Amino acid sequence: MLPDSNSDPIDTPSPVDRVILPSLETPTLTKAELAELLFERLGLNKRESKDMVEAFFEIVNEALVQGTDVKLSGFGNFAIRRKAPRPGRNPRTGEPIPIKARNVVTFHASHKLKAIVQGDVPPAEEFE
Question: Which CATH superfamily is domain 69-128 in?
């Protein structure tokens, strides 16, 4: 909720202000932005930063394609879940349509990530 023009500004930070990556201006974090953050914060050159980001996502993709869960400590878990076939319905026509069985990727956030998003940021030593 935004304060009205007659009230004092609220001192509590918004969820965007509490984000660990304060240099991000867009609500979407792209691979290019991740590479730029590695360049700025770790001192890697831009090519190394881009390669590191690409390698990370390639490893995650390969693991998920093979059916292996991906667990990122302090962040969350990615898992493949098999969805059974089921009857569906075309919302426009109401016509019944069978929905095929498929694999879907699910993500479950860790308790640490949930606490950060809620603003209950744990002490910094827990991230080391």
Answer: IHF-like DNA-binding proteins (4.10.520.10)
